[in-house]
């Protein structure tokens, strides 16, 4: 195809017919200079005549010419993929909340008066933290930050997720310190005997991860829902769910690899003779590395361009 280059986007990029796009449930998107190689799909060439550009959208071949909006929709998906990948280590860390953390709780004193708390029930600390913090964040913290930043959300979605990843690092460090104390008290005893240490020692790490999920998990859901094309909202939700699912899968794979390569095992049948704290330190380092990569991607990322209300009214 004969493409004229260099080109002026406004004069040589095919914008498409707004009425036909509306019939397909699409909204006109502004051109973005990122991933300019994809703009070739919307470039008018010497082989594309004016009659072809006026064809009905249903009969037009997308293999020959696409509109700017269609190209920008592809760019949106491409831009979100690195963010999707960078959030997987966070999902690996949060997968421990309902697996290794619970196994850790099973070795502790879970008595509350005459009641013995089931190990899996300690995860309620996570839920309670989120239930209490999210309204405080939305009603108090966001308005205060909004006054300084002018952002309707207080901070951007990427900033919100970054804060959550940083908190997750603190959560894993806390879990490692608590586990070291628990292991020292256990003294290598059989796991069938409870350690003389209250299960409420796990409250800090669960609460910290509750804060982390209030930032990153909620921000991640909103990010993928908003940053994909308007007619592909379900894809955004799927990207959120798959990032969580892949994290859980890789968590199992990581534990298997660690148990096969460490001696004594970091996560053995008897936690009292294992080194679970080493595993937590590894996850803390992984989250810290993730934070650095995520910050770099955040500076690189460009949010979905949306026409201003004034421009829409003028058109």
TrEMBL record:
User: What's the main place this protein lives?
Assistant: membrane
Keyword Chaperone among record annotations: no
The entry's keywords: Membrane, Transmembrane, Transmembrane helix
Q: Supply one GO molecular-function term.
A: transmembrane transporter activity
Span-the-membrane segments of this chain are: 114-137, 157-178, 199-218, 238-258, 278-301
Record localization: Membrane
Q: Cellular component terms, GO, for this chain's entry?
A: membrane
Q: How does it sit in the membrane?
A: Multi-pass membrane protein
UniProt lists the family membership as follows: Belongs to the major facilitator superfamily. Proton-dependent oligopeptide transporter (POT/PTR) (TC 2.A.17) family.
Q: What is this protein called?
A: Uncharacterized protein
Species: Ceratopteris richardii (Triangle waterfern)
């Amino acid at each position: 195809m004969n493409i004229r280059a260099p080109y002026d986007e406004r004069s040589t990029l095919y914008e498409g017919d707004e009425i036909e796009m509306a019939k397909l449930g699409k909204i006109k998107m502004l051109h973005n200079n990122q991933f300019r190689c994809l703009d070739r799909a919307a470039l008018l060439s010497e082989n594309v005549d004016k009659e072809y550009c006026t064809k009905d959208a249903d009969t037009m071949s997308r293999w020959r010419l696409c509109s700017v909006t269609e190209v920008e929709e592809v760019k949106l998906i491409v831009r979100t993929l690195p963010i999707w990948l960078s959030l997987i280590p966070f999902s690996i860390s949060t997968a421990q909340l309902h697996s290794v953390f619970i196994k850790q709780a099973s070795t502790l004193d879970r008595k509350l008066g005459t009641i013995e708390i089931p190990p899996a029930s300690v995860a309620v600390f996570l839920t309670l933290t989120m239930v209490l913090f999210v309204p405080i964040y939305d009603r108090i913290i966001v308005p205060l930050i909004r006054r300084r930043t002018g952002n309707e959300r207080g901070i951007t979605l990427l900033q919100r997720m970054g804060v959550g990843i940083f908190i997750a690092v603190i959560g894993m460090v806390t879990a490692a310190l608590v586990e070291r104390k628990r292991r020292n008290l256990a003294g290598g005893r059989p796991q069938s005997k409870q350690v003389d240490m209250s299960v409420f020692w796990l409250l800090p790490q669960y609460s910290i991860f509750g804060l982390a999920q209030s930032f990153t998990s909620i921000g991640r859901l909103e990010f993928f829902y908003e940053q994909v094309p308007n007619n592909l909202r379900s894809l955004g939700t799927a990207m959120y769910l798959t990032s969580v699912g892949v994290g859980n899968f890789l968590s199992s794979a990581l534990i298997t690899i660690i148990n096969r390569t460490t001696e004594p095992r970091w996560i053995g049948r008897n936690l009292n003779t294992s080194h679970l704290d080493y595993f937590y330190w590894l996850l803390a380092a992984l989250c810290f590395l993730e934070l650095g990569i995520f910050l770099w991607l955040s500076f690189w990322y460009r949010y979905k361009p949306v026409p201003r209300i004034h421009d829409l009214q003028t058109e």
